[in-house]
Design brief:
With 344 residues, the chain is of the alpha/beta class. Helix content is 12%, strand content 26%. Strands 1, 4, 5, 8, 9 and 10 form a six-stranded mixed β-sheet that branches. A five-stranded mixed β-sheet has the order 3-2-11-6-7. A four-stranded parallel β-sheet has the order 14-15-18-19, covered by helices on one side. It is globular and about 60 Å long.
Length: 344
């Protein structure tokens, strides 16, 4: 088995992550891919033409920034480098920008050298055409970078002289380099200042903080003055031993945050992003999680010597969730949680 980057856990499933399906839908029959920008010969290719190319298989590992990895993914497609060679990058080109057919024209970027060496255009995965939820009919996969650098529903490629960081890098403070072996998950320059964190701790009303990414804040032992934590984006934060009983996190984002040992009795998570968060040792008795993202979310952690730090999940209801790791699902069922409407 291949080695995993630091902080990653293996899973047999490919979770649905990232951008949601385009509101306008998908029409593979009229799909086109353009290569524009600083190229000598701009290209415009239909999906049927792409399928006549020299498609082949590639096996690679995929690493999601939220902490899950899937080893040995079988992909069918072709290297981006082949199309770039046809387009003829001009000497000034240094970066590649990928743009999706989505309601927000979701995008990402890579240095030209990395994209040419590692990025593939993928039409099929695991022996079947890519389904829309995983980016079909056409997506990019760059195995050497976190998965947010791999774009669903690829429709345009631009070669640029200056970099233009992508959607998740702009909106979620994700690291623009995204090297999983260096654990470049978030942009350190966007860590929330201590004064802002203290203002959050002392606030009676969280409205001024909603819509702002609070990154890597130290909120251990916090007992907020309001139970309404809905809409807060507390990413990669420490909430160890926080007093959050009865709090509600509707629409909140707690991705990669540490809630170990927190009191979350009777708390509520509706349409919340809990990807990569750790609830090991937390008390989730009577809590409700409905329509939540649980990719790589952990409810227990094992240590050497056989010690396990496990959440209390008696009476926990999880109704509708995506991405729950296999071993975490088994633990929840054995420990008294109720799981409903989970895929698989």
């Amino acid at each position: 088995m291949s080695e995993l980057p630091p902080g990653q856990v293996a899973t047999a499933r490919l979770a649905v992550v990232g951008e949601s399906l385009p509101a306008a839908g998908l029409d593979a029959s009229s799909w086109t891919l353009e290569i524009t920008g600083l190229v000598a010969r701009p290209l415009r290719l239909g999906l049927a033409e792409l399928k006549t190319r020299n498609l082949r298989e590639r096996m690679a590992d995929i690493h999601c920034v939220t902490g899950w990895s899937r080893r040995g993914v079988d992909m069918v497609g072709l290297p981006l480098a082949e199309l770039l060679e046809e387009a003829g990058p001009l000497p000034a080109s240094a970066f590649v920008r990928f743009i999706a057919h989505s309601s927000r024209a979701h995008d990402t970027s890579l240095p030209l050298a990395i994209a040419a060496a590692d990025t593939w255009l993928v039409l099929a995965m695991d022996g079947a055409p890519l389904p829309p939820e995983h980016g079909g009919p056409l997506r990019t996969v760059t195995p050497g970078r976190y998965f947010y650098k791999s774009l669903k529903w690829l429709t345009r490629i631009e070669l640029l002289e200056q970099d233009r960081p992508g959607y998740w890098e702009r909106e979620s403070a994700y690291h623009n380099d995204a090297d999983p072996w260096r654990e470049q998950r978030f942009d350190a320059q966007r860590i929330t200042p201590a004064a802002t964190v203290q203002a959050l701790r002392d606030a009676d009303d969280f409205n001024p903080f909603r819509g702002t990414v609070i990154l890597k804040a130290r909120l251990g032992g916090w007992q907020p003055r309001s139970q309404d934590l809905s809409g807060l984006q507390l990413k990669y934060c420490s909430l160890r031993n926080a007093k959050l009983a009865g709090a509600y996190f509707d629409g909140a984002n707690l991705s990669l945050s540490n809630l170990e040992g927190a009191d979350l009795v009777g708390s509520r998570f509706i349409n919340a992003d809990l990807e990569g968060a750790s609830f090991a040792g937390a008390d989730l008795s009577g809590a409700v999680m409905r329509d939540v993202a649980l990719s790589a979310t952990r409810f227990f952690r094992d240590f050497s010597g056989g010690r396990r730090l496990a959440a209390k999940v008696g009476g926990l209801l999880i109704n509708g969730a995506s991405g729950l790791l296999e071993e975490q699902r088994e633990f929840l069922l054995a420990a008294g949680a109720t799981l409903q409407r989970l895929p698989g």
